[in-house]
Amino acid sequence: MTSKALTVPAVALGTWAWGDSGEAGDGYFGSRLSGSGLREVVEKAQSSGFTLWDTAAVYGSGRSETVLAQALTGYDRSAYQLSTKFTPQIAGDGDDPVADMLAQSLDRMRTDHVDLYWIHNPADVARWTPLLIPLLKNGTVRHVGVSNHNMEEIALADRILGEAGFRVEAVQNHYSLLYRSSERAGILEYCREHDVRFFSYMVLEQGALTGRYSPSHPMPEGSSRAAVYNGILPQLQALTDRMGTIGEDRGASAADVATAWAVSKGTTPIIGVTKAGHIDGLVRARGIELADEEVAELEALADAADVDTRGFWEHEM
User: Residues near 135 by Cβ (< 8 Å), separated by ≥ 6?
Assistant: First the structure.
């Protein structure tokens, strides 16, 4: 049976960008991340109570998991939680592709268990979900979540696990002020009613909701996020301006307000961190209590922007 109920910090830390090779332009964010820089991120995060690290076998083809383990060297395993994913699209063709991918992840992360293991995309729920049961039984997986699944797929996965005495304890979907499909589809409500933790990713829409970018100061040309977001920056201006004003009153940034909004909706945002300074923003966000009127106003401005930021990997919720 599941060891104990899943408990998580207010914000989880994403390491998608940690899979960058570090070569300029070769990696989703084109960043140059150094081992010492990421160690600094880990030290600041851990001491601030942000101890859940989210990665995936597919991030940088395993590089993210490897780099994360290096950055966590020396910390007691009980001092942090590891969240990683089985991605059906890269499954091998052995007898048990889920156990095989998990074994590789455990090896890269130098650990004997993951606290939270996700089915990354809903390729074939009935095929992949049963293969998690032996891993829950032997303790290499402590809790199971599903990512990018719609209501029907979540319920099916939960039913399959339930037959063995386990359950889906977490859902991880794209959820932001600009993209609230999981809320409209009733998934947030389902999670509240069934004590399932909802993790929101892309809360900052890859920087578009940080207030750092505007029509006069767009995202760096040539990056894949510039192609997605630069064209809609004019529509976002009223929203990001208002987020900035709400933040100013609290000594916080627009990005902190976006994160605080996701927390106020009862979700656990997964925020990508690549610099120690990012942790300061999460500490601020954790302390922000948005009034109901502020939440309503931000959502109205987001609706008025009328943009669709659904990722190419996502299906309709």
Answer: 98, 99, 102, 117, 141
Q: State how far Cα 42 lies from the chain centre.
A: 17
Q: How confident is the model at residue 20 (pLDDT cuts 50, 70, 90)?
A: low
Segments making up each domain of the chain, as ranges: 8-174
Alpha-carbon torsion, ordered 226, 227, 228, 229, to 10 deg: 40
pLDDT digits (tens, 9 = 90+) for 287-298: 999 999 999 999
Closest alpha carbon to 239 in 254, 226, 256, 252: 254
Give the CA count within 13 Å in the CB-facing half-sphere of 188.
Answer: 17
Helix (H, G, I), strand (E, B) or coil at 272: strand
What is 8-174's CATH number?
3.20.20.100
Which token pair is 209? 């909701």
What does the alpha-carbon distance between residue 83 and residue 64 come to, in Å, rounded to a whole number?
12
Residue 316: predicted pLDDT: 81
Per-residue model confidence as pLDDT tens digits over 127-179: 999 999 999 999 999 999 999 999 999 999 999 999 999 999 999 999 999 99
